Amino acid sequence: MKKAAAVTEHRSDRSPTPDGTPDRLAIAASRPDDRAAIGEIVRRSGVFSAEEEETVYELFDEYVESDDSGYEWLSARVDGALAGFICFGSTPLTEGGYDLYWICTDPDWRNRGIGRRLFAAMESGIRKWGGRLVMIWTSGAEAYLPSHRFYERMGCGLSATVRDYYRPGEDLLVFVKYLPPRKTKKKTS
Ligand SMILES: CC(C)(COP(=O)(O)OP(=O)(O)OC[C@H]1O[C@@H](n2cnc3c(N)ncnc32)[C@H](O)[C@@H]1OP(=O)(O)O)[C@@H](O)C(=O)NCCC(=O)NCCS
Hints:
about 190 residues; alpha+beta; Aminopeptidase; 4 helices; 8 strands; about 25% helix
């Protein structure tokens, strides 16, 4: 079973939510038939290039085709329709390190708390699997400034900047969030 399948969050009540999140939102492991809708969200996101869109498909196909691709995908659905997704995975050669590769909310559903819920579902999975930190590589380009604010709101700190990494004038920024260890139940004997 894919690890992501163990991260399931479902809200069944229909009452308005205090944080403004749509009340019919469900977060669960992405399904193979999410592929087209994920591609559509990426295309409409306004920040990703055609090459990046191809990479999203590549990672998704690896996730669908193999149980140990190293990629976890979670989809956010509102009334069954895809409203966002997140892709992350453990970082090879680290103990408990994880990378967040992609997070995207459909432009029609932005600023409604979906990104926050996806991020929290990822964190909960990582902690469950003994992870300690999540690292995010991102561009310093102006188009990504809103996502930098988002990462800061999610409790990530800017850990490193590599000047001119992507191309002259476009830096690499590395954000990191350190996760608290899960409380283990005390043995009673
Ligand atoms: C970044 C992104 C995923 C945020 O998703 P979202 O569903 O709109 O985010 P939320 O509504 O859950 O917002 C969570 C917090 O981030 C803040 N935030 C979200 N977008 C923001 C923006 N454009 N500018 C400043 N802050 C922002 C919100 O104010 C909120 O803070 P609060 O809860 O403390 O008030 C979304 O804007 C997106 O898909 N962007 C395009 C793709 C992208 O750049 N992905 C990241 C690189 S892979």
